[in-house]
């Protein structure tokens, strides 16, 4: 899916995030719920307005999964299989929500990494996250 150089770019950006999964993840979720309120429908159990602790906790889990994907770029399907099952068959998250999360993630990366998140980096991350979403939504069939 990604060339060796693209993979190196993904890893380079990930090195700036690793260790900060919870705050990055919380901000990602907050942006997702704010910009696309319909996504909150899947998180009703967190209440109308998820608090900081809930955002940090779930945000960390989501970003840690992205970290797993970064470490298994050559074998995404196997690495994410249980997560794909969960989203398709248990949570039944509509696949149209994944591009929304991908977009919000890029905005969060751009706002924090600024100059380091170059146009080239953004293009590579878009490709990587889209590939991730493909793997996470292909069990729906
Ligand atoms: C749960 C990752 C996209 C809704 C999870 C979990 C992870 C995760 C790691 C926890 C799994 C566990 O507890 O075993 C991801 C990744 C995504 C993604 C990496 C995309 C790149 C989405 C989207 C939605 C969504 C787009 C809906 C808008 C949920 C819900 C849960 C969940 C409702 C259960 C929350 C809970 O148990 O409190 N996701 N997810 N996910 N995800 Fe996702």
Properties at a glance:
141 residues; Globin-like; mainly alpha; binds protoporphyrin IX containing FE; 6 helices; single chain; 71% helix; 0% strand
Structure explained in plain terms:
The protein is mainly alpha-helical. It has helices at residues 4-17, 21-35, 52-71, 76-90, 97-113, 119-137. The chain is globular and about 40 Å long. It binds protoporphyrin IX containing FE (HEM). Residues 1-141 form the Globin domain.
Topology diagram in text:
Layout: H1 4-17, H2 21-35, H3 52-71, H4 76-90, H5 97-113, H6 119-137
Helix pairs in contact: 1-6, 2-3, 2-5, 4-6, 5-6
The structure holds protoporphyrin IX containing FE.
Proportion in helices: over 70%
Average pLDDT confidence is 95
Q: Given this structure, which CATH class is correct?
A: Mainly Alpha
For the biggest sheet, the summary is: none
CATH architecture identity: Orthogonal Bundle
DSSP helix count? Answer: 6
**Cα Rg:** 15 Å
Provide the β-strand percentage band: under 5%
Q: Outline, from the CA principal axes?
A: globular
Low-confidence stretches: none
CATH topology: Globin-like
Report the span from N to C terminus: 21 Å
Keywords: Heme, Iron, Metal-binding, Oxygen transport, Transport
Organism: Balaenoptera acutorostrata
GO cellular component, one term: haptoglobin-hemoglobin complex
Family: Belongs to the globin family.
